[in-house]
Design brief:
By secondary structure, the chain is an all-alpha fold. The chain contains five helices and no strands.
Length: 122
Amino acid sequence: MGGVDTTMLEEKSTKEISLKDLSVKLEDFAQARDWAKYHTPRNLLLAMVGEVGELAEIFQWRGEVGKGLPNWEESDKEHLGEELSDVLLYLIRLADICGIDLADAVLKKLVKNAIKYPVNSL
């Protein structure tokens, strides 16, 4: 039967998925659609920037918003989640295509930030 293949979504719960798992799923998704030829660093970056624009648009006229998004409708939160997901997926795919281990890069960056911005001891 035709339709959407959801097996990639059913393998692990959302609590257990890693960046590597997502990277593999994105690679499989692109290969199945013959999209890998379009996934150049430049194209992925520009697509991600477009998604960041869509993400910014959600907040554009709301002013400051408190933690947990009080007073937001569930549909607005769902839309936000979709746009955040788009940005994350493009970021993971971009890192993968560029040969960057994103998890390792993040951990190294956190160490650099801790050194650059030490906790003030008062």
